[in-house]
Amino acid sequence: MPQIAVLTKLTDLANPTRFLGLASRILPWMAGITAVLFAIGLYLSFAGEGDYQQGMTVRIMYVHVPAAWLSMMCYSVMAASAIGTLVWRHPLADVSHKAAAPLGAAFTLIALATGSLWGKPMWGTWWVWDARLTSVFVLFLMYLGLIALNRAMDDPGKAARVSSVLILVGFVNIPIIKFSVDWWNTLHQPASVIRMGGSTIDSTFLWPLLIMAIAFTMLFFTLHVAAMRNEIWRRRVSAQRRMAARMAGQTLEKGV
Amino acid sequence: MVIALLFRDLKLSVRAGGGALIGVLFFTTVVAVIPFGVGPDLNLLSRIGPAIVWIGALLSALLGLDRMFQTDREDGSLDLLLMQEHPLALTVLVKCLAHWLGNGLPLVIASPLLGLFMNMDEVAIGATMLTLLVGTPALTFIGAVGAAVAVALPRGGLLVSILVLPLAIPVLIFGVSASYAAVQDPAPFMPPFLILVAITMFFAVLGPLGAALALRNAGD
Amino acid sequence: MTHGFYIAMSYGIAALISLCLIVWVWLDGHARKRELAELEASGIRRRSAPKSEGEKA
Amino acid sequence: MMKHNESPQMRLTVEALSARRGEDLIFKDISFSLGTGESLILTGRNGSGKSTLLRAVAGLLRPESGRVTWESDEAETGTRASEACHYLGHRNAMKAELSVRENLEFWQDFFGDFSGGRGMTIADAAEAVGLGGIAHLPFGYLSAGQQRRMAFAKLLVAWRPVWILDEPTAALDVSAESVFTALITDHLAQGGIVLAATHQPLGLENAQELKMTGFAGVMESMW
Q1: Do C47 and D28 touch (CB under 8 A)?
Q2: Gap between the Cα atoms of B26 and B59, Å rounded
Q3: B79 touches chain D (CB under 8 A)
Q4: 3-class state of residue D28 by DSSP
């Protein structure tokens, strides 16, 4: 049965111990590539001429857009892992979405902060209930809720399963939230104010943006693999401590 | 038969007292403190009225939510409900309906009175009541997922509200939009109202499915 | 204020948050590694470690 | 009572079941098989995993490995084992605010009869556990022992071939215990299957016994 053989191969690959081995081998490379990409991206984003005002603030986009993209991608990674938890009950999937949540929250925070900093010179206030910023803010709240949920439960297996359900329900809801926030925004504000990205982006701005997006994505994956490794270690420590406690109890009982 | 569950839960919500009454009381109190915050300017109140009533209803709907499955878990009934494959999502749907009839419907019925407090005119009151009637079931359905998650938590309560509120934003947006559209001339009433209906129907499927999945996975 | 200020702030905040994240992940990993080493030193080791695949439940 | 003859052949099979609570593996590779009229008593001290095993068989706890299957000539194939089971846990699953009759009527309606038998009426069931005539009282007014008996009556109002009983005789005096034993014996005679955890003997004849030892290890090899 070749299919089963392939499946066992796959699960072997996803076995925590193998994952640790793989992680320690590729992490230095990933970190290196990330650093190089950031060096190139930062150089490009400051090298281009930016005398006129739009060109100045467009540099904020080089950080804001990749962070906003990551806030979405991170949630997709979590949703995929959630399926892994619920359908295949794979321990690595549990670890994956637990490790990704704080990363997603951090990148969402970057997107919010830079969005606000972009808005201040554009709109004159620090916060505008602009459709895109509002959606990102709601996403931020969802990340924080998931982190809080994970922290509130003692049993990691149960925590992983229950938060998986919530991640998936949230994932299905994101388009609806996005749509409704857009609707609400057009209702209350003239649409012409918001012109982030879109067709106004000149092709000279495209390259730095692309490189920075790839750099941020690499940063995310590097941190994700490292955080997953930490989480596996954490669980290993907790399992061994638990076992030590149980062993001590058993020898005590035998002694009495 | 699953219908038996509907009647049992309704009986309980009437007899165990509290649930519906506390929800309505909270709703009234929230709406009643608003004028103290924004001042007794009747024009302002009538302008923000539909939004305030909706937000009050949203918060009150969340209030009783974490008890939806918790009471059944405490006395062991939840185990027996889980063992029957009616299927489980249908069982949850029936529980949602019972919960809405016991907790959501009283809010809808109380809303015209609060509309009067907010100096809203008849059309606005009618529109708000209608949108609440259509929208509050959606809050119960999506809240069921949070309630099912709360079953696994040592202390659910507040966390459930935090988890559910972001998901309830679309309901709030379209509920309030439709209420305003009924009073303010240029905006048409039907599009946001129909979208609200669609959201409720969507959540009527998603909520019970998600809650059933969470209940299955929260077992210990 | 100049546009340069906002740009610097954006990059600064982004760098700060990213650095916090990197340092947190790194310190967390370091602490876990030390805990594992301590457990190893106190004679507790994974049963599955010596015979790797022997004891999969 | 229920039909006695022509009881269908059925079998509850548990294969290599392992379950964990949190990180602790509570038991490992437990297998048994119970046919028509057979019973199994789980013994062991507190915390030895009796309840966990019962919950796993009832489908309330997803096992770490292994499976529980149900076969019968009558029921359609592919029925989940838990649907053929009554489960009496530590908690009575009755609402204190409702009367005993309302409670029992609800469960009778909600469960419905499983193929191959019929449940008793509410009055008969209350009579059978020795508490006829007080079904109109709110459940919360009953004493702990009476509540337990009424919780047991819940098993009688809807037919399920398999009874899973977790400490059924907790909070009961000796006379009530003998009532329970008689009811369980009756159920077995009708071709039922009983799986019970207890630390006092239920006085069942030819029951198999499984001694639970508890704590099979920590799932550390997973990590």
Answers
A1: no
A2: 9
A3: yes
A4: strand
Does any domain span residue C49?
no
| pLDDT tens string C6-43 | 888 888 999 999 999 999 999 999 999 999 888 888 87
What residue numbers bound the domain in which A103 lies? 62-193+213-227
Single out the residue of B148, B146, B51, B135 nearest to residue B100, CA to CA: B135
pLDDT 10s digits, D160-176: 888 998 888 877 777 77
Touch of D by A (3+ CB pairs closer than 8 Å): yes
The string of DSSP codes covering B3-46 is HHHHHHHHHHHHHS-SHHHHHHHHHHHHHHHHHHHH-S-HHHHH
Q: Does any CB of chain C come closer than 8 Å to the CB of residue A131?
A: no
**pLDDT greater than 70 at residue B111:** yes
The full set of domain ranges for chain D reads: 11-222
- Give yes or no for a contact between B194 and B135, defined as CB atoms under 8 angstroms apart: no
Cβ–Cβ pairs < 8 A, chains A and B: 90
Biggest CA-to-CA distance, chain D: 58
3-state secondary structure of D80: coil
In a domain? residue C35: yes
Structure-block tokens of residue B20: 């519906």
Q: Which CATH number fits domain D11-222: 1.10.10.10, 3.40.50.300, 3.30.1300.10, 3.30.450.20?
A: 3.40.50.300
Which residue in the block uniquely carries the two structure tokens 């519906």? B20
Question: How far away is chain D from the Cα of B170, in angstroms, using its nearest Cα?
Answer: 35
Question: What ipTM was reported for this prediction?
Answer: 0.86
Long-range contacts of B126-130 (CB under 8 A, 24+ apart): B126/B182, B127/B50, B127/B178, B127/B179, B127/B181, B127/B182, B127/B183, B127/B189, B128/B49, B128/B50, B128/B53, B128/B54, B128/B179, B130/B193
